[in-house]
Amino acid sequence: MNESEEAGRPRWAATDPHGFVVSDGAPAVRDDYELPAPVRDAYEERAPVRDGYEAPVRVQDVDGPDLPAVAALGAPAHSGPKAPSYPPVPQGLPAVAGDLAAAVLPDIVLDGAAYPGVTVRAASVRGDSHRYAGEPRQDALCVTRIGGDEQGGELLMLAVADGVGSAPRSHVGSNEACRLAARYLDRSTSLHEAIRTADAEGFQRAADNVVRQIGNLLGDLALQHDERPDALATTLRILLVPLDPRIRTRGFLAVGDGGAALLRRGFWHLDFMGDADGGKDGDVIDTRTAALPRARTAVTRLIHPAQPGDVIVLSTDGLSSPLAGDAGMRDFLKEAWTGAEVPAPADFLWQFQYRVKSYDDDRTAVVLWEHGEAQ
Hints:
The protein is of the alpha+beta class. The protein has helices spanning about 5-10, 35-45, 100-105, 130-135, 170-185, 190-195, 200-225, 315-325, 325-335, 345-350; strands spanning about 110-115, 120-125, 140-150, 155-160, 235-240, 250-255, 260-265, 265-270, 300-305, 310-315, 365-370. It is about 25% helix and about 20% strand.
């Protein structure tokens, strides 16, 4: 090594006992550095094993400087005396060599938004069966803003898509359907006006036009990759919320099955296409098997007026099915989502993963809290 190379080598600062700072201020890692023994020993301990699952370990009660207490929610809550047998954490992954689009999909997605009058939380979690088999999450979600002054006003677009389980590329179809919906709903010049004026016929026409465009483009995408259109089959559900807090009407459109529930004044109304003012729990709102890219029309509904305190849950059947079938889940989520405060994102994700035996499909939902004009 010549003198110039020797001069350019980073050197440890004499005042640093751990070797994390070099003399030129650049970060470095020292090969011979080890954690202090008490901290290392605490990390190596493991919590008791439950059903074959090793829970994460908290570092505590070690000698040396005081460490701040770390809160841990632990495994999600569940119905019944015993949790489902699958571990409630990510498992096997798809291989890049088999399907790149599947391999790069995250196991869990968490999102949200807040505007005057509304707050949103959204999550999509790979189902237990897909985790166990190393298969991709077939659900998708989208939380975005569309429209603008030229279209008469902005809208919050909340969408969930459920790739059909038997379709080999449905994970591509669901994500692409959300992306295309955002693209073409953003270009629609009549959506905001139809929602603002509660024009149900105008909203239906605009929704059908967008669904046709999505179906055509999904079909073209499949053909470009030498696939049959049905290989990308997916459902799609969308809620459109004007960002003007004075407009209390919301637009709903759907292709295929899934859920759209209303939690109002402490009661679940799962039949959101029916009477949302009833006092009893209903059934899943829609069980038809329509799917993109074959579908060319949407089921639509204008919801008005949204009331302060309403919680609207747009979901795939990975949530709507156990919600309809399990009273424990309904009670748990009612308590979690009707408090004075909207759950923080991490708390929402933990609550959303409430487990019910035999329900192991992907689970996706976008949840809208209505605050009213004043907030």
